[in-house]
Known about the structure:
Two copies of one chain form a homodimer. Chain A has three domains: 3-134 and 305-329, 3-Layer(aba) Sandwich (Rossmann fold), CATH 3.40.50; 138-298, Dihydrodipicolinate Reductase, domain 2 (2-Layer Sandwich), CATH 3.30.360.10; 347-436, ACT domain (Alpha-Beta Plaits), CATH 3.30.70.260. In chain A, 37% of the residues lie in helices and 25% in strands. The termini of chain A are far apart. By secondary structure, the first copy, chain A, is an alpha/beta fold. In chain A, the strands form two sheets. In chain A, strands 7, 8, 9, 10, 11, 12, 13, 14, 15 and 16 form a ten-stranded mixed β-sheet that branches. A six-stranded parallel β-sheet of chain A has the order 3-2-1-4-5-6, with helices on both faces. In chain A, helix 5 (105-122) packs parallel to helix 10 (200-214).
Amino acid sequence: xxxxxxxxxxxxxxxxGVAKLLLDHGDRTARHAGRTMWLKKAVVRDLNKPRDVxxxxxxxxxxxxxxxxxxxxxxxxxxxxxxxPARTIMLQLMEAxxxxxxxxxxxxxxxxxxxxxxxxxxxxxxxxxxxxAGGIPIVANISQxxxxxxxxxxxxxxxxxxxxxxxxxxxxxxxxxxxxxxAQELGYAEADPTMxxxxxxxxxxxxxxxxxxxxxxxxxxxxxxxxxxxxxxADLRYSSELGYRIKLVATAHQADDGLELSVAPTxxxxxxxxxxxxxxFNAIRVVGDAVGPVxxxxxxxxQMPTASAVVADLIDxxxxxxxxxxxxxxxxxxxxxxxxxxxxxxxLAGRYYLRLSVGNHPGALAxxxxxxxxxxxxxxxxxxxxxxxxQAGQQQTDPVxxxxxxxxxxxxAARRATEQIEGLSIVQGPVVRLRVKA
Amino acid sequence: xxxxxxxxxxxxxxxxGVAKLLLDHGDRTARHAGRTMWLKKAVVRDLNKPRDVxxxxxxxxxxxxxxxxxxxxxxxxxxxxxxxPARTIMLQLMEAxxxxxxxxxxxxxxxxxxxxxxxxxxxxxxxxxxxxAGGIPIVANISQxxxxxxxxxxxxxxxxxxxxxxxxxxxxxxxxxxxxxxAQELGYAEADPTMxxxxxxxxxxxxxxxxxxxxxxxxxxxxxxxxxxxxxxADLRYSSELGYRIKLVATAHQADDGLELSVAPTxxxxxxxxxxxxxxFNAIRVVGDAVGPVxxxxxxxxQMPTASAVVADLIDxxxxxxxxxxxxxxxxxxxxxxxxxxxxxxxLAGRYYLRLSVGNHPGALAxxxxxxxxxxxxxxxxxxxxxxxxQAGQQQTDPVxxxxxxxxxxxxAARRATEQIEGLSIVQGPVVRLRVKA
Lengths: 438, 438
């Protein structure tokens, strides 16, 4: 039987999972690859650090040259996180003739065009299924399985940490900070969860998917994004009263005049698939003009789901499928102009949820409705409850929370109306404004 | 740009859809294939029959030899249904050097081993994404995307017609026959819907998926199957009262001592993804030992979803990916023994829903419970309502419907207990027995 020699660079959580699959399930991998996938080297920073995988003698090394200089190693899983030295190592590996499999989404989001150009120049390939939505094979599905379609919409829950936090806040009515602590204890959130909760991670994944699905070349930082870090349990409660659940939704929609992209906490109708995505799961809904809607749901992160994607890519690369796909689709090529451009943000259309604190003055609602009318935004529903008695049993009258759901409006109009409402003397504090999924 | 000449044999609903995608979206297909996909011939039975696609001059022919004898045509979408002449034509095409893309699931379920052996012998490939679950690319997902996994469970709603009928019965409380007529009017059921509603179609699809996922070589007719054709709206009502929805579920589960396979109306817990699959949609849940659960939902049939799968396969075949996969995975090879065998049906374990008509005799429930106990089947819940008054206002007392949910039991024990209960003098008519999903 043929043999492909594989190396892993970076033996963290995912790297250890990849090593386990290659070492413990060689027969299975061989069956699916039609060849032995032989783990020849694993490059680590510290040889003495304890790991949850036992490597055969001679596999572990702290010297990258053991991989670079070994012509028998043709495929490398590059699993170092961050931008540097990950970028430099990936370039070195490709220059040494290795095909690359990576899970490093931040690296691709930042340096994708450079790395893909270099790969093409050198006749190498980069596979990156594991970079987006871990266990959901969305890269292969868009690039190959749905290749007969013009994709019109792609929307999903792409960040498991955020979804875990929002799910917990929703289920238990807990405050954001308390749930973040719980998520950190359970390993669902990192010590510094900023990139997950502020929408950066989801925007980086969306930028990659938008390139595959729409041929758009957009830097993640140009995608308008709001995280879940400011979310108030009150908004989860009101949403549920209105028949919605709040989720951090990443959306790409091809409109006639450009591509609408956004990452934002969004009210999703209860009972629809995205609303039912719980805890650390990810989900993606793709609409193609031929296939119609296709929905994917699976674990978006974690050691073995991500390792599953890496090993599938290692097999695809070893058998030659990756090379064909990589050459055919010409990802991030500078000679192909982007097929679609991002649409002017102000023109993104959607419905909005607004929550205000309003003083108890006659005509307050009329004043607010008037501002919305000036911006041609019409109201679809309103919630205003009597205040609960305070702990001393005193009826609270001032301020009262007022929740307004609008009909469809442009993002620009909604933003300007919100700013104007915040300037009204009867309105206290900032207005909470969230998108509502149709 | 390179060009691949393609032919379609059989220009029915799906064939016309494939022609539309190739003719109307040549730029898109070229982008995804890195080459022009040129529809050179479409073989039809009757050149004068009106069709919903307009073919350029010279493309339509009623002579298969125009394809067989044209060496420039290398890839053929063989879209004739049924077993013959589909089988003979496929063999002729392969002998003439063509790679095949097909949507004919019945043909593969019946003659897969012969056709795949012939393809290998001749150095040809057969792609068949469209044969199972139309718009859900489950074949590629199992064969490639999840290749790092041992799949442990695969379960799904694989027949859109049945699901449409059950969904409608459930929503409107309608009788089976009425809904079948409606489904026929709407085009969701054929004039003779037998193969769809009796579980044959789902069993054929399951046999193909079980081969891909578990290396099992099982003839579809050996899969125990029950259709939805005998379903009583009363059982949908009681199921809902118990917190379940009835779906026609196809299941393959790898147990220690073999593969459990079945197609049967099954009580699925409300709120779980399979329970929420409506109308003509299909869904498949795959559990892999590394990736965990992955859930797919999409349109299982229809012109364009199926054409989407065919065209993706045409592209994969033209660029060379299909050949690699076909050679690597060696589907249905007689020299590889099946990796797993079907488990003895009697040992399939599961929970059961039983509905009986019981005469109003003291001790009736005790007698029934006693039979279950003899077979070591324990009861998890019971529903027995008072009868409704009849139209004349008379309280009906005899017989009373009795619904029993059991804890886990073997299929053999459940069947024998059911037969014994049917023999009790207090029980009238047959006992309805349905599986319950954990």
